[in-house]
Amino acid sequence: MSEQIKKGMDRRLFFKWSGLSLLTMFILDKVRPLLAEGSEKDYWNEFGYFHQDNVDISNIKDEIIRAKIYGSRKGWRNYNVVSADQGFIDWNFTERLNRIDKMIGGKMPSFGGAHNPFVASYGGVLPHPDDWNRSQFSLNNAVKGMGLTPKEDVINDIIQGLHDYWNESDEGRLQHLKEIYADRDLWDMNKQISLELYAYPGHNTHSFRNWMENPLATIGFMALEPEFSPPISPPIMTLKLPSYELRAIAHMIHPLDPDVDEYEFKLTKFANTIRDFFHHKAEEDPPEPEDMAIGVIYYICEGFDNYWGEVSQSKRVASLRILEWPKNLYAKVFDKTKQGLAKDSGISRIA
């Protein structure tokens, strides 16, 4: 091939790649501002509800939940669902009962603690630049009203009990709440629940938008009043202010969605009912599905005790369980390895 032909080919390749580079720069120049400014997705259907499709609870009976994670190359991932640590359980029930006692005595309890943690979320999608809650960040942290979740076999009875005491006096309703919180066997401590009160068609909250894109959540609790703290064992310090973190998969349930799990719908109904149980007006009945807010069920995957006092530390307390398939795979590999070693050993002895 002559040098003249080679030079011609080199020039054509130069112009070809230069053109592609300019086209790429032009496209990125147009796309980058759109990504930075954000765009409002329409998560709602024509019937006024949504369905969060990035969480799969089909194996929840085996304490496994699947979630589609934003930014993960694998997409769907399996997570273990675990019970909260006993220290968290003791503190949570202790504080709830003490808060109710204060209210029965006519005192307003402090906000925060077991009922009002901060909940963090990240979705990677920004609001539209003209939206009511426009922001340059998709990382969000918000205070939620957090509740416990009744076990599946008693949830109907607990909801009915709230209906039975619906029109009692303030003290009568508080005494009923104290009675059910005093029985720890009623509650499933591998979950927490809140309500997404302010999300509705055309009005997506930061938390709602984030969880529609990425269902990860972290919940941060801290006691505000030392008297709500359970006894410390062993007594290594004179004061312990409990501070706990739960890392969870957040599953939002719209009460009008016909395709949601029956137990998750009942949890949403319970959360709405117990909220209105104390806040409703005299003439109001218990809420029906069309009056209910979105329920958010947090399936606990990890827990940390972040207490501070004379000794400060962050200690993982709700440990991961090893899924059955990795254990079985490990057993097979280990067995084959032992067989191989035994075989090699036999060969060397023969040699």
Rg over alpha carbons: 27 Å
- Number of beta-strand segments: 11
Count of folded domains = 1
Taking the alpha carbons of the first and last residues, their distance comes to 62 Å
Estimated share of beta-strand residues: 15-25%
CATH class: Mainly Beta
What best-fitting shape do the alpha-carbon axes yield?
globular
What does this structure look like?
It is a single chain. This protein is of the alpha+beta class. Helix content is 37%, strand content 20%. A hairpin with a 7-residue loop joins strand 2 and strand 3.
In short:
This protein is of the alpha+beta class and 351 residues long. Helices cover 37% and strands 20% of the residues.
Kindly list the characteristics that best describe this protein:
single chain; 351 residues; alpha+beta; Pnp Oxidase, Chain A; 8-stranded antiparallel β-sheet; 3-stranded antiparallel β-sheet; globular
Please outline the helices and strands.
Elements: H1 3-37, E1 55-56, E2 64-68, E3 76-80, H2 86-104, E4 118-122, E5 139-143, E6 147-150, H3 155-164, H4 170-182, E7 187-196, H5 206-213, E8 216-222, E9 243-253, H6 262-279, E10 294-305, E11 315-318, H7 324-350
